[in-house]
Structures
1.
Amino acid sequence: MKTKEQPFIMVIFGASGDLTKRKLMPALYSLYKRHRLTENFTILGVARTAYGDVQFRSYIHNQLNKFLDPKEYQAEEVGEFCKHLYYVAMDPSEADDYLLLANRLQELSGSAQPNNILYYLSTPPSLYGVVPVHLKAYKLNSRGSRIIVEKPFGYDLESALKLNNIYASVFDEKQVYRIDHFLGKETAQNILAFRFANGIFEPLWNRNYIDYVEITATENIGIEQRGGYYDESGALRDMVQNHLIQLLALTAMEPPVNFNATEFRNEVIKVYNSLVPLTETDFKEHVIRGQYTASDAKKGYREEQNVKPDSRTDTYIAMRLNIGNWRWAGVPFYIRTGKQLPTKVTEIVVHFKETPHHMFHQVGEGSAQNNTLILRIQPNEGVQLRVAMKVPGSGFEIKQTAMDFTYDKLGGLPPGDAYARLIEDCIASDPTLFTRNDAIEASWRFFDPLISYWKQHPDAPLYGYPAGTWGPKESEAMMNEHGATWTNPCKNLTDSDQYCEL
Ligand code: BG6
C-alpha cells in the first residue's frame, strides 16, 4: 500500500489555537474535499480546553464556516469531514497527561503501538522541546510516526541546537518535518521550475548579468492579536531567519541533480553556508531595523495589546546580504520585510545589468536599458519580465514594457494552499519541502552574531516609520549606496486598494 493510502491519525497539539482554525483545518478539509486523503483518517485534537469529541466537532465546524473560502464551504460535506475529528483534553506540558493521549491513540487505532501517527505542534514554541520528550516516555514515537514543527524552531543558534538534540534523541531526522509554509507556496516552488525547466534564464543567472536582487515580503496589517509572541520574536525571527532566507535559497541555489529531498536540501544548505558573515560595519550600515509608529487611524506598535510600552522589537527589517561563491560574488541581495506597510506583497525582483552602450533615446520612467524580472509570490501571482521596446512612430524612442504571465492563465486553477500541500507531503512521507536540521542551524549561525550585537548594544538604532508607509528612510539610503531604489510595487495605492497589480 502506498504511504498515502495508509490509514493515519494526525494529532494536533494546540487544537483550540489560532493556526488550527485559520490554516490547518481549512487545509485538511480542502484535501478531504479533493479526495486527497485516504478514507480512513482520524484527526485528534489536543489542548487544555475542556471539550469532548462532539463539542470539538461543532467548534471546528463553526470555524470552518468562518475561515473557509465561501466557495469551498458546504455544510453537509464539512459535517462529514468533522466526523473524522476527535479530541483529548490534556496539558501538553504535563508528563502524566500523556497517558490520556496514549489510551486515546490505542482506542482509535486499535493497537497498543499505533504506527502511522503524525504529530503537529501548533503550540507556543516553549512546548517544542517538551512534547517529544513526553511522547518518548510513553513510547509514542514509533518509527512510522512523524512530527511537524512550526516555526520558529529555536530562538537563536544555541536554542536551535538544543532543540535539534532533543528531536534527535526521540526521532530519526527523517521523521522530523520543520515546516516553513513559504516553501509550500506554489509560486515559491515555481522559482525552481522557472529557473531549471527553462534553458534561457540559467545562463544569465549569475554575476556576469545580474546587478542586484531584491526580495520583499511586506504586509499591510500589524501584529493583530499576537503581541505576546511577536514582542519576543520581532521581524528578524518571524520572517527573515526562515521565510526570506528560504526565498533567497530558491533564487540563488545551484541546480539540484534531482528534485528529491536529499539533493534539493543539500543545495539549500550550500547557499546558507555561502552567506558572507556580517561584520560590525554591516550591522550598522547594512541592516535597517524599524518599528511602526501611530499614524492616522492606525495604532503604533507600542500601543498594541501585549506589547511593552517601551518595546524595542523590530517590525521592519531591511538588509544587504552577499553570497560568497563563484556565481554570486559581488551581487548584493537586498531583503526586506515589515508589518504595517502600504500593501501585502511578496516578490523577488532580479535586476539585470545595463546594456553596455545606450544607442536610443529613452522615454518614460526608469532606465529603459536595464531589464528587470519580477517573480511575484503573492498576491496576483505571476512572473513579469520588463523589456525595452520601440515606441511606435518616427525616430527611435525606447520605453519599458512588461511581458506578463499570471497564474490565473494556467487553466483557471488558483495556486494551491501552502499548508494543504505541505500536510499532504508529510502524509506521503516526503520531506523535500521541509527544513533539515543542518539548514536550521546554518541559518541561525548566520543571524546569531546580529542578534548578539543587538543584545550587547541595546541603543543600536531602531528607526520609527509611520504605519502605512514603506518603512524607514534609512532603508532607502542603503539602496542608494548601490545607485538603486526599492521597487515598491504600487506607486499610487489608495486606502481602498489592498494589493498591487503585478
Ligand atoms: C508567518 C508569520 O509565518 O507568516 C506572520 O508568523 C506572517 O507574522 C505570515 O504574517 C505571513 O504569511 P503569508 O503566507 O500570509 O504571507
2.
Amino acid sequence: MSAYHQLSDLQRALKADELCCVDMVQAFLKRIRERPEINAFLEVYDEEAIERAAWLDAEHVAGRWYPLSGMVMALKDNIAYKGHRFSASSKILEGFESLFSATATQRLFDAGAIFIGRVNCDEFAMGSSNENSAFGPVLNPLDSQRVPGGSSGGSAAAVAAGFCHAALGSDTGGSIRQPSAYCGVVGLKPTYGRISRHGLIAFGSSFDQIGPITHSLEDAALLTEIMAGADDYDGTCSRRPASECRMPTEPKGNGRLKLVVLEDLEDSGGLDPQMFEAYQNLLVRLKAEGHQIITRSLPELKYSIPTYYILATAEASSNLSRYSGVHYGYRNPDATTLEETYKKSRTEAFGKEVRRRIMLGTFVLSEAYYDAYYSKGQKVRRLLRDKSYALLEGADALLLPTTTGAAFRFGEKSDDPLQMYKEDMFTVLANLNGFPAVSVPFALNRERLPLGIQLMGRPWEEGQLLRMAAILHPHRAVSTPLDA
Ligand code: GLN
C-alpha cells in the first residue's frame, strides 16, 4: 500500500484501477494480525469487511461510486452497529449485541464506508489512557511503553498504526482530541448537536459528541459532513446544514488569521518544557507568516476541570443506572433478591473508575449537596460559555496545546485520579461550552513523540475551523507516523 493521506487521492487511484478495495482490506487485516500486542481491536470483522470490499469493487466496475468509496474505518466500542456486539469496553455489557445502528454508523455505511472492526476504549469512555478498559490497555503504536491516550485510545491507535484509514471516537471531555494528539493523528470534536448521539452509549449526555479521527483535515471534514444533520432519534441534534462542515476553498481573511492565545498558559496547566518550547516556536512561525496572535486572559479556565467532573459524573450516574444486571449484559448468578442482583452485578461488572464516578455523581446530585455542587456547576458552565464567546470576539479561533505534553508512560497516572483528571486541562472547555475543536499533530519532541495543538472555533463553523487548522498541520513535514 502506498502512503495514505486523504480519501480523494485514494479514490483517484481506485478509479484509475491502480488498486481495489479487497486488496486494501487484506493489507489492513495483515497489519492488524502482525501487531496483536497493540490491542486496539476488540473484534475484527475480517470476512464481513472483505465481502463488503468485494461488493464495492463490483459497484465500481459497474460505474457506481459512493462518497466514501474506499474508506476503511474502525468503530469505537460505544457506537452501535446493528447485529454486532458492543460493550463500551465494560464487563457489564458482556455478550450484548446491538439491535440497531447508530445514526452516525448508518450514514457512513450508506455513504460506502467499510467497517473493519470495533476498537477498544476506556470503560464507558471514562479515562485518559485506555488503562480503564475491561479488555486490557491499548499500546501506543509509536512507543509501546506509553499510553495511546483515552478514552478513544483504540480509535487513535488503529489510525496511527495503519490498521484503517479513519476511526470514530466520542468526546465528552477530550476523548477524541487527547488520544489523537498522543498518537499523532487528527481528531475533531464537532459542535455539540452537530452529529446525532442516537446509538452512542451515553456518558454525559450534555457533553457527548461523536467525531472522526483521521490522517488529514480533509477526511475529518468529509466524515463530519456525512454524519451531520437532523435526526428524529436525537432531539439535541441540530437542523443546521451539514455543508457547514465542508472546508471552504478560500481561507478566511486572505489566509491571515487572528488567533487568541491565553496569558500565563505555562502556569495554568503545568506545561511540559518541550511542549512549551514547541508552542512558542509555533507562535513565532505563525507571526512570521502574517497571522495575528492576540493574548487574552481566561482566569476561569482553572474551574473547567472541577465543573466538568461534577456535571459529567452527575449525568453518568444517572445514565448508568440502566445497567442493573436485569435488562442486559452481565448478571451475578448467585443473587437471590432483586437488590442483591443490582448490587452484586454492578459491583462485579463495573470497573473501579466507573464505580468512582457513579458514586461521585450520585453524591453531587444528592439533596443535601445538590445546590453546593450540581447547581453551582451549571452556573460556572454558563459563565465559561459566555466567557468563551467574549474570548473569540473579533478573532477567528482559540489556539491551545491539546495536552500538557507528549504521551505518558503506563502506570504514571493510574494510581492518582486527580493527576489523570488534569489531563483534560485544555480539552474540557470545548465540551463545557459546546464549541467545535480540532487537534492536529504539529511537532515532535526530542523522543520523536508527537505533540498536538488544538484550535477551538465558534459553534457551527467546523468547515472554517478545519480550514484554519491547515496552517498548524504541516503534514508533509510532521508526517503521521506510520503511512497507511
Ligand atoms: N478524560 C475525560 C474523562 O475521563 C474524557 C472522557 C471523554 O471525553 N469521554 O472523563
